[in-house]
Amino acid sequence: MKRRSFCGLLCVLPGAALWAQPASFRFDGENYIQQFVGAPPSGDRVVEFVRPTENLNNWTRLVGLRFQQMPFLDNDPVAAALQLERVVMKANPQARTSVMSNETKTDATIDFLTWSADQAGMEFNVFRYVKSPDGRGLVSLQVAHRFQASEPQVAEKLRATRMSWVRQVVEHDMGAVTQAVMARR
């Protein structure tokens, strides 16, 4: 696969400018090091982290924090998750997706598994969306894992990873994510 994941392509921010952000992020017992920060003039923001031994060209695990203005979706977390599901399914009609939300629909999570055309490279993602405190956008947390379909016991590993990652993302403090991506607004 190329540098950017399928989801990374969805969230590329043209005209990105660099700005100071947390240099590391901890998820699933691992530390991730900041590799990319973008803040285009529109006001959207993205911060991406990878494992210390990886970079944006060869990552196997990535954490992304975003602030995105989505007025065409009324900055609705559930609508954003469903829109991402549509994009994933359009790119790969056999992809496996799951969308969940809380009772008040102020918080939505999507996880999905997709793969390259040759089905050798696979990517699992979990995104969680919440409305920003000012209501002018959405804040999201993304965790992604790239792997080869030929890896030993890949199905068993993916099942365990999925259950754990979805739980961790749903339980993650989105206030900290919000603070990280809106610090320089």
From TrEMBL:
Q: Which UniProt keywords apply?
A: Signal
Residues spanning the signal sequence: 1-19
Which domain of life does the protein's organism represent? Bacteria
Q: What is this protein called?
A: Lipoprotein
Organism (species) = Hydrogenophaga aromaticivorans
Lineage summary? Bacteria, Pseudomonadati, Pseudomonadota, Betaproteobacteria, Burkholderiales
